[in-house]
């Protein structure tokens, strides 16, 4: 057995036959050292951004954070009503949910299933599904996206409760 290193040669003591470092008791034959360089001798690519920096998170994770912030803005006033509602993010709407001449939706509501008789289909609360790509396409920057997400969450939550969005957020619809 021969172990290749990044420089193209075999490593001494890699079990390639008799020789120094391959005998019993040498102990180095079972240790595999991590590669320090790529095949061009430049070094392996590491993380470009350290964990904990906002840039480290993917765009999808940043979008999820904005959704959680929008929901958190509603929680102080609507905590008990929000406890049953689930929030989900989907990339784009399914083709069967869009009609012929309808615009692309920004979100949809999956209504609750109150039937607890069937153990295969347990009861679930309502779910608000937000579509990431259509929302991103309508926003110019992160601040506008945050406000758009909040407005969509307010509208969908108001529809679940059967009230106007102004009841959920008295400042709904105000520009600025």
Structure description:
- By secondary structure, this protein is of the alpha+beta class.
- The protein has 2 domains: 1-46, no CATH class; 54-168, Zincin-like, CATH 3.30.2010.20.
- Helix content is 31%, strand content 8%.
- It has 4 helices and 3 strands, in the order H-E-E-E-H-H-H.
- It has helices at residues 59-82, 132-138, 142-161, 165-168, and strands spanning 86-90, 107-110, 127-131.
- It has a 3-stranded mixed β-sheet.
- Helix 1 (59-82) runs parallel beside helix 3 (142-161).
- It is extended.
- Mean pLDDT is 79; it is low at 1-17.
Summarize the structure.
The chain contains four helices and three strands, in the order αβββααα. By secondary structure, it is α+β, with helices and mostly antiparallel strands.
Strand order of the largest sheet: 1-3-2
Count of the domains: 2
- Biggest pleated sheet: 3 strands, mixed
Helix fraction, binned, reads 25-40%
Number of strand segments: 3
Number of helices: 4
Structural class: alpha+beta
CATH architect. name of the largest domain: 2-Layer Sandwich
């Amino acid at each position: 057995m021969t172990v290749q290193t990044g420089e193209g040669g075999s490593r001494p003591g890699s079990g390639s036959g008799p020789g120094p470092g391959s005998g019993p008791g040498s102990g180095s034959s079972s240790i595999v050292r991590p590669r320090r360089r790529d095949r061009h001798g430049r070094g392996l690519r590491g993380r470009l951004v350290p964990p904990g920096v906002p840039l480290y998170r993917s765009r999808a994770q940043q979008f999820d954070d904005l959704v959680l912030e929008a929901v958190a803005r509603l929680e102080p006033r609507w905590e008990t009503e929000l406890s049953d509602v689930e929030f989900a993010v989907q990339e784009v709407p399914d083709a069967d949910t869009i009609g012929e001449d309808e615009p692309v939706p920004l979100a949809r509501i999956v209504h609750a299933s109150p039937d607890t008789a069937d153990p295969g289909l347990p009861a679930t609360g309502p779910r608000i599904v937000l579509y990431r790509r259509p929302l991103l396409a309508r926003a110019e920057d992160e601040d506008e996206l945050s406000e758009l997400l909040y407005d969509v969450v307010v509208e969908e939550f108001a529809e679940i409760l059967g009230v106007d969005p102004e009841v959920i957020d008295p400042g709904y619809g105000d520009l600025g």
